[in-house]
Amino acid sequence: MHDKKDESVEYWIEEFLTARATRKPSPHTLEAYRRDLRTVAALAGETEAAPLPLDALSPRLLRAAFARFAGARAAASVHRAWSTWNSFFTFLVAEGAVPGNPMPAVGRPRAPLPQPKPLRGEDTPEELLAAVAQAAGRQRDPWPERDLAVLALALCAGLRLSELLALRVASVGGRAGERRVEVAGKGGRPRTVPIEDGVDRVLTDYLDSRRRRFGARSVRPDAPLLVDRHGEPLRRGGLQYLVESCYRRAGIVDRVPRGARLHALRHTFATRLAEDGASAAEIMRLLGHASLTSSQAYIEVTAGQQRAAVRSNRTNRALAGLVGGRPEVTGAGG
Q1: What is the mean pLDDT of the chain?
Q2: Which of 52, 200, 203, 322 makes a 20 to 30 Å CA pair with 19?
Q3: Active site residue 266
Q4: Catalytic residue among 20, 160, 249, 267
């Protein structure tokens, strides 16, 4: 049995966060956990003595707290907070601090579909590739072949940042006309993505240029596929900086959705798949999504954009103006 001082919600929040810290989440994620737990606990504690005792967290009290929490927040924020509290109670049950998890009785908000963030502008991807293919005079050590390879793998194969960093030279293989890249996907889900001749030529040119720079040993099969200008494996920060540098050189920074960075290239790949008629199942397989929900978002957004384009057509607007004030005619023959 814990001491009374150890039975407060605040005490157990800190215990939970300490346990979570061993999983090495980002500081941003850990702070989001703390904020969601403390905010809802404060709302629940408005009618309770402070500090709020753990056994006061009944389903009824939590439902009221989450109702207040949801009042001024987006659905995604409410969903995230619910998931955090569900994890918190799972931890408490495992620690023997509470007999059960009340969160199923609170009601889980529906998770909003993620909104894709592709590059803006119909021809932006082509402008980006064309600009990066030319060595910029202001670069200290231009390596357009490498930069183009990074963009091609993200734009034409839809790879995530972590997946790009995990690639090896041997990850690209297959016979001519059937080339593919073997991807170590998110959540331990490997996948194979076919690559067309254009991407294959870009990768071949890149490896040839790398061989000239660093020698034949630099392109051995087990070597990292993407390296920096010193021949060392590219790291997360270096890859992000490289992509942002490409955006600047192409003059398209204002067409990159805020916060998207390299992910905007992956979203562009998926959006174009949807525009070309790919099914949710095909998008799911090529992008390595865990469920159809994420893949379906690209199709729904694309359909919405197509509808908006039709709605903005001047002829449609003129027609709506012609019939908008006309009384409905009934009983007319065919």
Answers
A1: 83
A2: 52
A3: yes
A4: 160
CA distances from 235 to 117, 129, 232, 240 (A): 23, 22, 9, 9
- Give bridge partners of residue 191 from the DSSP assignment: 183
The reported pLDDT for the residue numbered 7 is 79
Using DSSP, state whether 279 is helix, strand or coil: coil
DSSP per-residue letters across 293-331: HHHHHHHHHHHHHHHHHHHH-HHHHHHHHHHHTSPPP-S
pLDDT for 294 equals 62
Active site residue 60: no
Instruction: Please indicate whether residue 28 is annotated as part of the active site.
Output: no
Using the structure block, give the residue that is written with the tokens 């995230």: 80
Work out whether strand 172-173 and strand 180-183 pair parallel, antiparallel, or are unpaired. antiparallel
What confidence score (pLDDT) does residue 137 get?
58
Q: pLDDT tens across 1-16, in order?
A: 444 445 789 999 999 9
User: Domains, the chain, ranges and CATH?
Assistant: 4-106 (1.10.150.130), 124-311 (1.10.443.10)
Region 118-124: what's the mean pLDDT? 90
**233 pLDDT above the threshold of 70:** yes
Residue 233 main-chain phi, psi, to 5 deg: -55, 135
Question: Six-digit token pair at 286?
Answer: 């090529």
Region of residue 121 (phi > 0: left; psi between -120 and 50: alpha; otherwise: beta) = left
Q: What is 27-84 written as a DSSP string?
A: HHHHHHHHHHHHHHHHHHGGGSPSSPBGGG--HHHHHHHHHHHHTTS-HHHHHHHHHH
Angle between helices 263-275 and 292-312 in degrees, nearest 10: 70
The confidence score (pLDDT) of residue 113 equals 62
Per-residue pLDDT reduced to its tens digit, 241-265: 999 999 999 999 999 998 788 989 9
Q: In the chain, helix, strand, coil percent, each to 5? A: 60, 5, 35
